[in-house]
Structures are given as structure tokens and as C-alpha cells.
Design goal:
TIM Barrel; 12% strand; schiff base; Schiff_base-form_aldolases_AS
């Protein structure tokens, strides 16, 4: 399954009491669809999944699926460091009607490659949903090896990879040695064009909340053979991409959305909002663009 080129790792909107705000969520969905998002990933890292309760995740899945109404793919973050719990949440997400699931590498446990393979294989055997692997060693400590990813890609419903390793050599090897239908996405906004250039399919993006149309134009120009124009856009967008990660995500992107008039509330502890200085700097960078 091809999910699209620009997949937005959607923030989770909260109200003044830091509770899930479904009305703001509806508004955010429409804004993202109109501004370049080909698909939505919900309850992922940017969606503050670590601080969402099980009930909140289910409520979020149900609401997003209903509002999107099959206009674009909805991919639910259902992975954790507990294989059994990941299976249970994945099954619930499937019943709700999501189009796919994002399964992160188990964190804290520090499994070896055999454990990682068995974790993903076991989850895949319990669902018919397409699965996107999420390799993010900076957060989970462990990293899926190239060989493990290639082996997992042979499982019928493991169809995609979000790679946040920053290792372009490894990504090149994965693209070269997996089936052409296995899609590979950058998990780092600043590597969107480089990964596209070596054969990737697109990006799971935070920055697309703010510069989705520009990122989509960049990828379209590249596909049309306008490489220099695409590279020019990449260089212009890079300061915004960097600014949106000046503090632990998603605090900067939530501040940027609120500044744009797309109300999404604050982050939950242990994350904290931007300082006044950080917010001022972010606004300056956005204004320059």
C-alpha cells in the first residue's frame, strides 16, 4: 500500500485543561488536508503518545477516522515496548477502521535483533492491516539492522519503513534490497529530499504542519526532473525545519500552529511550552519564509 508522499505526524490538540479536544482535532485535520498532507499518522511521537491514555488513543482513532472519512490514509501509532499490548491496541485500531499502523521499535527493553524481528513478526501475524516499521534509535536506543528490516519486509503486511536513523547508507541498502512495493519514508524533515534522491518515497513529517505545501512542491519538482529547483526549495525550508526542533517536539510545532491561528493547545508534562525567547525566534524564522 502506498500511503502518499507527505505523511503528517499529527499533533494531538488539547484544550485549556490539557484534555483531548475533538473540535480542535477536526479543525486541524481539515487544515492539514488543505495544506499538503497526503496522509495522517496519529498517536505517534509528535502526537504525544507517551502521555495519552489507552482510552484517549481509542477516542482519537475513532474521531480521526470519522472526520477523515477515507479522504486520505489514517495510520495509527499502536506500537510500544510491550508486544502483547501492541497487538491488543492494533486489533482495536483495525476494528475502528484505520488504514494502517505505525509500530515503533521497542524502547527501554533493549531487545537484540532476534527479539526485534519476533516482536514485529508476532504483531503482523495478529492483524491484516498494513504495517509501517518505525526505526528511531535516538529515542528507543535499539536500532533495526538493515538485515532485520529486509527480513521483515518479506512479511506480507509489513509494507513500509519510517527511518529516523539518519543513516543514508543504511537507507540506500534497504531500498536496494527490498521489493519495489516496500516503501521507505524519511523520519527526519531535513532528509526528505536526500532520501527521495536515493529512491525513498517521501517523509513522515512534523514540519508539514507549517510548510506542507512547500514540501509537496519540492517533491513534485524533483519527480519532474527539476532537481535544482527542488534543491533550492530544500535550502529555503531548512531553517524552518531546524527551528521546529529547537526544543523537544512537539512543543515548537504546537507553538507555530497556535501562532498561525490553528489552535492546538499546549504540550503535556514532562514536556513544557517554549520559552518567550524560543517562541520569538521561531516566529522570526517563520516570518522570513
Amino acid at each position: 500500500m502506498f500511503f502518499g508522499h507527505i505523511l503528517t505526524a499529527m499533533v494531538t490538540p488539547f484544550d485549556q485543561n490539557n484534555q483531548l479536544d475533538v473540535n480542535k482535532t477536526s479543525e486541524l485535520i481539515e487544515y492539514l488536508i488543505q495544506n499538503g498532507s497526503d496522509g495522517l499518522i496519529i498517536a505517534g511521537t509528535t502526537g504525544e503518545s507517551a502521555t495519552l491514555s489507552h482510552k484517549e488513543k481509542i477516542d482519537l482513532f475513532k474521531h480521526v477516522v470519522k472526520v477523515v472519512n477515507k479522504r486520505i490514509p489514517v495510520i495509527a501509532g499502536t506500537g510500544s515496548n510491550n508486544t502483547k499490548a501492541s497487538i491488543e491496541l492494533t486489533k482495536e485500531a483495525e476494528q475502528i477502521g484505520v488504514d494502517g499502523v505505525l509500530i515503533v521499535t521497542p524502547y527501554y527493553n533493549k531487545p537484540n535483533q532476534e527479539g526485534l524481528f519476533n516482536h514485529f513478526q508476532t504483531i503482523a501475524s495478529e492483524t491484516s492491516l498494513p504495517i509501517m516499521l518505525y526505526n528511531i534509535p535516538s529515542r528507543s536506543v535499539v536500532s533495526l539492522s538493515v538485515d532485520t528490516i529486509i527480513a521483515l519486509s518479506q512479511i506480507e503486511n509489513i509494507v513500509s519503513l519510517k527511518d529516523s536513523s539518519g543513516d543514508l547508507d543504511a537507507v540506500s541498502s534497504i531500498i536496494e534490497q527490498t521489493d519495489k512495493d516496500f516503501t521507505v519514508y524519511s523520519g527526519d524533515d531535513s532528509l526528505t529530499l536526500p532520501i527521495k534522491a536515493i529512491g525513498g518515497n517521501g517523509v513522515v513529517s512534523v514540519s508539514s504542519h507549517i510548510i506542507g505545501k512547500e514540501m509537496k512542491e519540492m517533491l513534485l519538482l524533483f519527480e519532474q526532473g527539476e532537481w535544482k529547483k527542488a534543491a533550492t526549495i530544500h535550502r529555503k525550508l531548512l531553517p524552518v525545519m531546524k527551528a521546529l526542533f529547537m526544543a523537544p517536539s512537539p512543543a515548537p510545532v504546537k507553538a507555530a500552529l497556535n501562532q498561525k491561528g490553528v489552535a492546538v493547545g499546549n504540550v503535556r508534562l514532562p514536556l513544557v511550552p517554549l520559552t518567550p525567547f524560543e517562541k520569538e525566534y521561531l516566529i522570526k524564522i517563520m516570518d522570513r519564509l
